[in-house]
Amino acid sequence: MEKVLNIVSYPYLPFFSGGQKLIAHFNEYLGEQCSLHVAGTADNDATMAKSYVFHPLLRKSKLRYADPGLYFRIKKLITEQQITTVIIEHPYLGWLGWMLKKSCKIKLIVHTHNIEYERFRTVGKNWWPLLKFYELWVLNQAHTVFCISEEDRTLMTEKMKIEAGKCILVPYGINQQQSPADKAESKALVCSKHGFDPTHKLLLFNGLLDYKPNLDALKIILEQINPQLISSNLKYTILITGKRLPAELDELKAWNNQHIFYAGFVEDIDLYFKAADLFLNPVQSGGGVKTKMIESIALGTTVLSTETGAAGIDKKICADKLLTVADNDWNSFTNIILDHYNTNAPTPEAYYQTYFWGNIIRKIIPILS
Fold it and tell me: Which of 49, 182, 198, 343 could join 191 in a cystine, given CB atoms 3.0 to 4.6 angstroms apart?
């Protein structure tokens, strides 16, 4: 059995964001197929690591990204556990991966969640060219690069000139293998919990709300989409979930009489995905795959998204569960809500075959050899 080390540079147990959830489930399923060790920050809850061994070797301080001592701690672990393959989540600790590759003769894999420099470029960070230079160097040092979408893989091979043979598609995965049978019950439960009229259509938006692309999308819902819905005859509620809503928005109380309700962070987001009649994703920046969309479709709820927001998802296997409109076309976005809010098309079987974590991990096990 292969002995693998995954190095995670930030807390992910428990998870609150899509990126953290990706790492948690990736490690959980990978640990069932190989001998997995994970080196992470001390502020993770190691008791949640069920299928692998967690080692709190990274400091909680931001200085961990430039900690020379980390090399020696990780090298000792590799020697003691006879690790043959090292995976690094994101390219930020690429310098560490390169040193371990040279000194320990391990196979180095960089697990990318998006093209980092592109993500920072789209949100207006002026230092993105420096990150591009570093990211390109890191990806070139790796034996293998795991890409979260075919779009990212194409950009790496055609624009960044990374060797095509080492860029492997490893999408964001799901736990479900079939459509849920309890959508109606889930909606009834959520409506009862928050006092919603169960006959109203439930429109959901979810995300970390201090992240600029998500905050911008929320403001579009409040200022562009909802005013048009109010003037229609649709009976609806827009439910907003997620942590870190900026204080100046005051929990969206000013919109409570305009069909908007803010529930904050919810423990069981799957329940809310299943309860929704439609998931809204008017995101126009940030790059990468919007993991909440993948989860929504897996849980039987249709997604309405901008073209930018739908980047990275295999549209062919989504069929009618993914509806897209051009960026900035809020009239069309609203019209699709009015025309398609009642769609009950099932999620295609091919969707589960492609995105189920168990299938994804089984395909990459031979690559770890």
Answer: 198
